[in-house]
Amino acid sequence: MSAAATDSRALHAVLGSGPAGTALARELARRGHPVRLVDRRGDGPALAGVQRYAADVGTAEGARAAVAGAAVVYHCANVAYHLQVEVMPRLQEAVLGAVEASGARLVVLDTLYPYGETGGAVMTEDTPWRATSRKGRMRAALDERYLAAHREGRAGIVLGRSADFVGPGVLNSSLGAAVFPGALTGGEVLGLGDLDLPRSHTGIEDVAAGLATLGERPEGDGRVWHLPTAPAVSTREIHAMIERRTGRPLNVVVLEEPRPFGPFDEEFMAEYAEMFYQHTEPQIMDSSAFEQAFGIRPTPLEETVDATVTWYEKWLARP
C-alpha cells in the first residue's frame, strides 16, 4: 500500500466544484486529509478543512498548477452538456499530462454511458462497452485512454462509475431541480419515459465516499469500479417516497420523448435525446464488487430522498 493510502497529511486535489466535487472535498476533509478544491473561480462558500483554488484545468498550465504537490487527484470536472463531446477529451489530455508529470495518482468520476443500451440487463463492471451515442462513445474512448495510461505505467489510475446523481446539492439530474421544488410547492414534477421501469440512482454522498475510498486504497487501481449504489427502484416508487416525506401528492408531468422542461432547456434536451434510452429500458447498476472489496454499503435510497427534500427546503427558502 502506497504512502498516499496511509499518510493523512498528503494533499488531495479535487478538480471540479459541482455537487460531486464539493461532496468529495467535504468527505476527504472529514477523513482528515488536506484538501484543495479547484475550479475556474476559486470562490464559493467556505468548507471546513478545504482550500479553494482557481485554475483552468482544461489547459496544461492550469492543470499542472491545480495538481502541484498533490498525492491524489480526483477528476470531477465537467462542462456544459452540449460541449462535452468537444471539450472532455481536451480536459483529459490536460489532466492526464499533469498527473503523469507530477507522479500523483488519479481517481476519475465516470458515468454509465460507455455501456450504451443493454436491453435492461444488470450492469456490472464486466458489462461490454457497446455505446452507439456520441457521448457514450466519447466516454468509452476516454476510459480506454485512462486505463492504457495505467497499464503503461504512466500514472496510477482508477475509475469510479456512478448512476444518475440524487442528493443534497444535486440540481441537474432527473431527480433534481425539475422534481423537488415542484414536490415542495405543488408545482409540476418531471417524470421521464416509463416511470415503472427500475432505475438506479447513486446518492451524492455515496459518490463522495466511494471516490474518497478509491483515493485511499491504491490496490483498486487499474480498473473500473461501480460506486456504492442502492438497489434500483422505479421512478414511481421514488415519487411515492417523496410524497411520504412531503405529505402531499405530486403533480407529475411525464415526458415520453425529450422536450424542454424546467431547468432543462431546448439546447440541453436536444443533446440529451440520444441518451433518452435510459428512460425507456431498465437502468440497473450493480455495485456489489465495490461493496465487497472495500466494505462500504450504499445509503438506503429513502434516507437519501429525505436528506434531499430537507436540502431543497432550505434552498427554496434562501434569500
What does it look like?
This protein has 319 residues and is α/β, with parallel strands linked by helices. It has two domains: 3-163 and 202-230 and 285-299, NAD(P)-binding Rossmann-like Domain (Rossmann fold, 3-Layer(aba) Sandwich), CATH 3.40.50; 180-198 and 232-283 and 302-316. Helix content is 38%, strand content 17%. It contains eleven helices and 13 strands. It has helices at 3-6, 19-30, 60-67, 84-102, 134-151, 180-185, 204-216, 235-246, 266-272, 288-294, 301-316; strands at 11-15, 35-39, 50-54, 70-75, 105-110, 157-161, 164-166, 188-192, 198-199, 201-203, 224-226, 233-234, 251-255. The protein has a seven-stranded parallel sheet with strand order 3-2-1-4-5-6-11, with helices on both faces. Strands 7-10 form a two-stranded parallel sheet. A two-stranded parallel sheet has the order 8-13. The longest helix is centred in the first third of the chain and has 19 residues, at 84-102. The chain is globular, with a radius of gyration of 19 Å. The N and C termini lie far apart (48 Å). Mean pLDDT is 96; it is low at 1-6. GO terms for molecular function: aldehyde dehydrogenase (NAD+) activity.
